[in-house]
């Protein structure tokens, strides 16, 4: 069962700057390389270079950006990089470096270039624990840290983009010409994403300004330095950098006259709110989102809607997103209402043609708000509003100019179709969902944007898994398995444990679908994949994911239960479902309670089919299914309503062998007819035909005890319906079986 999108853990902070990377020439013999940290492009003052086939990296700049103190010993010609208990020593002209107590051999000796120490990538990989990837065709070096990605899964199909939304004004006027020039230099570095260079320059400026003598310059410098730390927090050392950014913003607000400098402090309040929003994704979500909302409200009291439309509108958009996030924690309806009101106001301001990118971003947020509303309302019109918002956003940008925005929007649309598949599955919806994810894949790759690549493949696999349960099981499941294995090239247990667990759980579901087609070798693969997921999903840390994974593992055990092994695997299946039911209750989570009950019933039915306490287990199955379909109504959950009724029909049929034959056969037929409300001839012809064949079988059995001629006539009607799909050419075995039964009914 695919969970509805739960956006309470989203932290969407949208980039407003998409600038070209600038580089500094070192020498004609060396090739310069651009830099990405966790897939976001940044600028270094000293660029990485390729020399004689070796990638050389600037030691001071890289270690400092990761929070290390770097000192140079001129006598011994060594650089010491220290942070807490970690110490890395790099010696000039040496191919050996020391990482704590270990020696690391470098591919090339450390060397000086333009007065800065460079060393090969081993010192970065070993000293900082980074993954260093080289995209030679793009002349780009990518650094990836553990558990830091621009896309989030966390088991709930969430799509997350990290970044910062701060704009640095390069046009502010300052009274002191010398200070103005220094501030402009620092702002330019920040504008070009040279965050460390900007911070170092702002620190120098702050030595010569104060809140009393140069209040405007002080406010701007402190605010801009805070923005630099916010941007760094979106790349690395998230908590450390965001906490420091908050301290800078709050220091400015505490030391500045709010009445006299309100127009300048509006920006600081907005940036403080943004920082608290990011901090809420790390800890104390409700507390920090509440602080963010307070900061945004203060900014809005200072911004003039008429003269500063842009900042007013963007603050409204940030406020909308904060309410949206808070809706997942408390007062869902109220916060979603506030979220939509603020977002709509931003959308109306950004309708101005000069704000086309900002309009697209506002429509993107509007789309996820409607998607969140749909997850509560289950009203298709809300999902349609979500689609409309995303498509409006797409019409406002081009993929060539804004590839990340375009990719995100295609993924959101794909996720919308995933939701639609649970309500009205069809080949048309399936194709539109696949098309959206495949379009997104055009704008990401395993080498340059691995987490986007992995995320899109993960989502693509889900829609294939959904469709495989309806038609073309083997083909669609094989495609799902391919996409999941592509995602696992990125989502390793060491680097992305939660994403690894989620992907393993989906992979296990795909394997079990393959096993259900008669490919028995996939059963053990499925169990292994679920067990891999449970290495991360423990009951104490991730009870929801732990419970859902246990349900799916229980379903897998159901597939392999036989008369010979029932004593081993049936108890394991029961244990899995009962573990889930410790967390999912009718009161707290009726949908997943019903889902667990539905599959628990399958275990009872399997035992009864194997003639293991058949009557008792069949009655238990019927009791549990009836409990499930009180939640899974035809109106709200048509697919699971129909699955429940097919299970119920099967159970009544088994029970008809033991008691009340006529009554239980009629109940079995009735349940199958209920299932046909979902499995229609036009949308799912194979399932429809299979159920028609089963109804025919029930009528044939009924003809032996009740209304013989009428029952046979009804059996014939259903068999003939089935034969419209099960042709002799495509399904020879079924065709022969049904035609033999038709002859029997005609006698």
What would you note in describing this structure?
Among the domains are: 31-144, Copper amine oxidase-like, N-terminal domain (Copper Amine Oxidase, Chain A, domain 1, 2-Layer Sandwich), CATH 3.30.457.10; 679-747, no CATH class. Helices cover 60% and strands 8% of the residues. With 747 residues, the protein is of the alpha+beta class. The model is unreliable at 2-29 and 149-171 (pLDDT under 50). It has a five-stranded antiparallel sheet with strand order 1-4-5-12-11. The chain starts with 30 loop residues before the first strand and ends with a helix. Helix 19 runs parallel beside helix 21 (590-609) and helix 21 runs parallel beside helix 23. The chain is elongated.
Keywords:
27 helices, single chain, 8% strand, five-stranded antiparallel β-sheet, Copper Amine Oxidase, Chain A, domain 1, elongated, 747 residues, alpha+beta
Brief rundown of the structure:
The chain is an alpha+beta fold and 747 residues long. It is 60% helix and 8% strand. A hairpin with a 4-residue loop joins strand 13 (131-135) and strand 14 (140-144).
Give the low-confidence spans.
Answer: 2-29, 149-171
Q: pLDDT average, as an integer?
A: 86
CATH class of the domain at 31-144: Alpha Beta
Please name the fourth-level CATH homologous superfamily of the domain at 31-144. Answer: Copper amine oxidase-like, N-terminal domain
Number of strands: 14
Furnish the topology, listing elements before pairings.
Layout: E1 31-32, E2 34-37, E3 40-42, E4 49-51, E5 54-58, H1 59-65, E6 69-73, E7 78-83, E8 86-91, E9 96-99, E10 102-105, E11 111-113, E12 116-120, H2 122-128, E13 131-135, E14 140-144, H3 177-191, H4 195-206, H5 215-233, H6 238-255, H7 262-280, H8 285-302, H9 309-326, H10 332-349, H11 356-377, H12 380-395, H13 403-423, H14 427-441, H15 450-468, H16 473-488, H17 497-515, H18 521-534, H19 543-560, H20 566-583, H21 590-609, H22 614-628, H23 638-655, H24 661-675, H25 685-702, H26 708-723, H27 732-746
Parallel strand pairs: 2-14
Antiparallel strand pairs: 1-4, 2-3, 4-5, 5-12, 6-7, 7-8, 8-9, 9-10, 11-12, 13-14
Helix pairs in contact: 3-4, 3-5, 4-5, 5-6, 5-7, 6-7, 7-8, 7-9, 8-9, 9-10, 9-11, 10-11, 11-12, 11-13, 12-13, 13-14, 13-15, 14-15, 15-16, 15-17, 16-17, 17-18, 17-19, 18-19, 19-20, 19-21, 20-21, 21-22, 21-23, 22-23, 23-24, 24-25, 25-26, 26-27
